[in-house]
Amino acid sequence: MAVRQISIWFFIGVSLFGNGLLITGAGVHEWLVPAFAPHVMLGRLHANFWWGLMLLIIGAWYCVRFAPKREHR
């Protein structure tokens, strides 16, 4: 019985995708329901939305690129 190994990069991709999903969701919520925070100078740029979207894209790429291969018997 052979032990099948899964690349660590796949799990990093899952982690990036999950964090990106959470951050993007928070960014969308903040975009739709703006909080009163006059001390945030660049709040209008919605950095958490764009950063979360970037993590989603990178995480999805890692998940596809390093996905475990199915073995045919």
How many H/I helices?
A: 2
Series of secondary-structure elements, N-terminal to C-terminal: HH
Structural class: mainly alpha
Radius of gyration: 18 Å
Report the mean per-residue pLDDT as an integer.
90
**Helix-residue proportion:** 55-70%
Characterize the largest beta sheet: strand count, sense, and whether it forms a barrel.
none
Tell the overall outline: rod-shaped
The number of strands is 0
Head-to-tail CA distance between termini: 13 Å
Spans of at least 5 consecutive residues with low confidence: none
Strand content: under 5%
How would you describe this structure to a colleague?
With 73 residues, this protein is an all-alpha fold. The protein has one domain. The chain contains two helices and no strands. The two termini are 13 Å apart.
Question: What structural keywords apply?
Answer:
single chain; 73 residues; mainly alpha; 2 helices; 60% helix
Describe the secondary structure blueprint for this structure.
Layout: H1 8-32, H2 47-65
Helix pairs in contact: 1-2
What's a concise summary of this model?
60% of the residues lie in helices and 0% in strands.
